[in-house]
Every structure is written in C-alpha cells, then in structure tokens.
C-alpha cells in the first residue's frame, strides 16, 4: 500500500491486545505507520489509488489525484450498532479450545488434592503432638541462646541468665502439662486411625531421650541409622509412606539434649525440695521460704559475686565504706557531745520521717548513681533549654512592646483621620463662602456694566 503524498500510510488501530497493553516504550496513541519498499512516482501512486484494497477489485482507469474518482477505493459503509448487537448477542468464549494463545493447562485432580490437603482440619491429637514438638524445638533454641558465643562476664549475659532460667522453668511446666493431658486422654479418642501410632511414637521419643540423658556415652546409632551428625533433637512430625501399609518415622537427636534436660531438671529443683521436705515431715517457716525461684536466686548471687570479683568495684566499695565510717564516727562524737540535750517532739518526728524515707530509698541505692550520671550528661541539654527559655521570654517582651507601639500608631492614625475630616469640612465651607463672594462680585460687576 502507498499514499499519493508520502511514503507512509496511517492505519487506524481498532483492537488492542491485552498482553501488549502494559509493555513499556509503546506509543498507543498515534496510528501505526508502514514504509513501502521504495519510493513511488506520481503515476504509480495514482495507479495504486485505483486499486480497491478492501474488495481486491482492480480499477480500469487511473483517476486524477484531485478528482472524485480517487475516493472510489475507499469504503465508507459501516455496520449499524443495532445489527452488531443482534449479531453478537449471546456469544461466548469457548474455553475448551484456547487456540494458539499459549495458555497452559493443569491437572485438575492434582491441584484439587493439594487444596484439600491445605484446608484439612487438625485433630486434637495431632495438635497435641505438634505442641510437644514445638516445645522440644523451643528448648533447643533456648539452649542455643544460653550457649551462644558471647562473653560470660558481659552485663548482657549476666542480665539474660535469669530470663533463660525462668523460661526453662515455664517450659518445663508446659511440658508437664502436655504429658498430663496425654495421660488423661480417653481410650475412645486414641482409637482413631493414627492415634495409637502417634502415642507410641511419642513414648519412644521420650524413652530414647531419657536413656540418652542417663547414659554416659552418647548414642551413635538408632534403628540402624547414624544420627551423630544431626543437629536437631525434635521429631519431624511427618511420616514418609514407602508402601501401602508401612509408615516410617524419622527421629533426630543429639547429645546436647542431655545438657538441656539437666538444666530443665535444675529449674524444678525448688519444687522437688519442697515435695521432699513435705514427705519427711519438715516444715519451714513462711518467712524463711524465698519468694523467688531457686535458679533466679542463684543467678542473682552469681552476678553479685562477679561484681565483687572486679577490683574496680572493690575500690569503689572501699571508698564508700570509709566515707560511711567517717560519717558514723562524726555522728557518734556528736551524739556523745550532745547526750544531755533534750530532743523535742518536732525533731523526733522529723527523725522518724527521715528514717522511713531512708528505708524507702534503700532499694533505690543501686539506681541513684546511674540517675546522677544521667543528670550530669543532661546538664548541657538543660543549659540549652534555659537559654531557649530566656530567648522565648525576651521574644514575648518584644512582642508585647511591638503590640503597644502598634496600638499607639493606630491611635495616631485615627486622630490624623479625624483632623483630615475636620480640615476637609472647613475647606468645603471656605470654598462655598468663596463661591458666594465670587457670585456677589460678578453680580455687582454686571450691574455696573
């Protein structure tokens, strides 16, 4: 195709394919143009216009470029909207034959099975087994956190020790609760398919864990499989089906779990001691029973011993003790010198109040040095805040002074406006009087003339 004026002929775009709609660097507003193989002269261009490209009907004559015959090859007919609606009404897309569009199909039965597996409901026994597996995994994570490669003398490690101990105690209580729930499950609940197998599996895991904890040498093999190189101690919770009636469970265990079990048993030491004392008939006074767990108390004592083992801390304590001794000696001398003085009721009340205040401040003594250091570090900030406050106050004074000046200027402007109005009235009266005089003089002049 060629045009009579140029080498390009626009082609109106009617349909846009959806798969090319979002491609970058594509101009979808302007019409598409196509280039002819070579340039045509005027005669060939006129001859091409005589060929009907729509109906493929060649023309017998070569029309003039400016004549009406040049438009014979253009079809101006159009399909009415009502005919198009009646023709395509009720038509649909046949999805069974996608054609050459490159659409991919899938196995419906396979994906339906996956969807059903995702939406399957979890039975109570499966949930109980999952909770036990998660508890074991949490024990491993806590044990890894305790044995992480960090400095044991660092403050963060000392602060995290009681937290790990409390976590071990809570986790041990949770494991006992799960074991109690497993023991109290009725036989009807375990008679379902897979329930007995899951219970036996959990019993085997527990027995294997206890035997590994009590054995001096770690297990190297279990059921013909080498587990010495494995790094987890939890059941996978999934079964691999090799045959129609055969189910194989994989159990992962490491010797590090023995240390974890010993730590868990240590967290239950206070409860076991209380039970033993109750069996022996020994009763402890309530005031002598520690309020905090034994593991937390041991961790706190360990932190205090580490604090005392530092020479710098000992020097600071020595200086503080010397200062306290000097103050006590001065107070003793003062009390001996003024032993004959009579203490009135107000002074005794003040001393009692100060004594109660000292008892309240005694637990806060470790925090007071940090608070003082914080206040000293914030001294510059407080100084800047004081400067900003002074600047704000000065600004407020300047604003008040400016407001007074503005009010004075407004009063002056009002007085000036009043005086201008009065002057305007006087000037108008003078102009009227002058006009009357001029008229009178003009009348007299006319009389004389």
TrEMBL record:
Primary subcellular site in the record, as a coarse category: cytoplasm
Entry keyword annotation includes Cytoplasm: yes
Entry-linked InterPro entries: Dynamitin (IPR028133)
GO cellular component, one term: dynactin complex
Membrane-spanning intervals of the chain: none
Subcellular location: Cytoplasm
Protein keywords: Cytoplasm
Biased composition, class Basic and acidic residues, residue ranges: 14-31
This protein's record includes keyword Ribonucleoprotein: no
An individual GO BP term: microtubule-based process
Superkingdom as given in the UniProt entry: Eukaryota
Pfam families: Dynamitin
Chain spans, region Disordered: 1-69
Protein name stated in the entry: Dynamitin-domain-containing protein
Biological source species: Catenaria anguillulae PL171
């Amino acid at each position: 195709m060629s045009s009579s004026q140029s080498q390009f002929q626009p082609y109106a775009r009617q349909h846009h394919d959806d798969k090319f709609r979002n491609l970058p660097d594509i101009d979808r507003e302007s019409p598409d143009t196509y280039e002819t193989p070579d340039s045509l002269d005027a005669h060939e261009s006129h001859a091409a216009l005589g060929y009907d490209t729509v109906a493929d009907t060649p023309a017998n004559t070569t029309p003039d470029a400016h004549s009406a015959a040049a438009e014979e090859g253009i079809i101006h007919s159009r399909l009415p909207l009502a005919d198009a609606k009646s023709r395509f009404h009720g038509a649909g897309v046949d999805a069974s034959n996608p054609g050459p569009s490159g659409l991919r199909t899938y196995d419906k039965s396979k994906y339906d099975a996956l969807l059903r597996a995702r939406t399957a409901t979890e039975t109570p026994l499966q949930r109980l087994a999952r909770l036990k597996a998660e508890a074991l995994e949490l024990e491993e994570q806590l044990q890894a956190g305790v044995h992480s490669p960090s400095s044991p003398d660092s403050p963060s490690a000392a602060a995290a020790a009681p937290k790990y101990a409390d976590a071990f105690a809570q986790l041990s209580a949770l494991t006992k609760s799960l074991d109690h729930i497993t023991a109290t499950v009725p036989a009807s609940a375990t008679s379902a398919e897979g329930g007995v197998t899951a219970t036996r599996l959990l019993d085997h895991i527990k027995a294997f864990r206890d035997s590994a904890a009590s054995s001096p040498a770690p297990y190297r093999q279990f059921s013909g499989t080498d587990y010495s190189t494995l790094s987890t101690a939890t059941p996978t919770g999934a079964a691999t089906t090799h045959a129609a009636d055969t189910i194989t469970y994989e159990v992962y265990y490491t010797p590090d779990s023995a240390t974890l079990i010993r730590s868990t048993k240590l967290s239950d030491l206070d409860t076991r001691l209380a039970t033993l004392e109750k069996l022996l008939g020994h009763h402890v006074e309530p005031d002598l029973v520690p309020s905090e767990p034994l593991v937390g108390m041991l961790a706190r004592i360990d932190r205090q011993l580490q604090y005392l083992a530092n020479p710098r801390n000992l020097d600071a304590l020595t200086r503080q003790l010397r200062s306290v001794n000097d103050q006590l000696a001065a107070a003793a001398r003062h009390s001996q010198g003024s032993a004959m003085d009579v203490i009135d009721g107000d002074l005794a009340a003040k001393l009692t109040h100060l004594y109660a205040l000292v008892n309240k401040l005694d637990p806060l003594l470790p925090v007071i040095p940090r608070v003082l250091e914080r206040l000293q570090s914030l001294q510059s900030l407080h100084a800047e805040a004081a400067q900003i406050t002074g600047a704000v106050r000065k600004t407020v004074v300047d604003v008040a002074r400016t407001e007074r000046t503005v009010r004075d200027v407004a009063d002056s402007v009002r007085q000036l406006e009043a005086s201008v109005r009065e002057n305007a009235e006087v000037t108008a009266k003078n102009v009227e009087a002058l006009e009357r005089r001029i008229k009178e003089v003009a009348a007299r002049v006319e009389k004389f003339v």
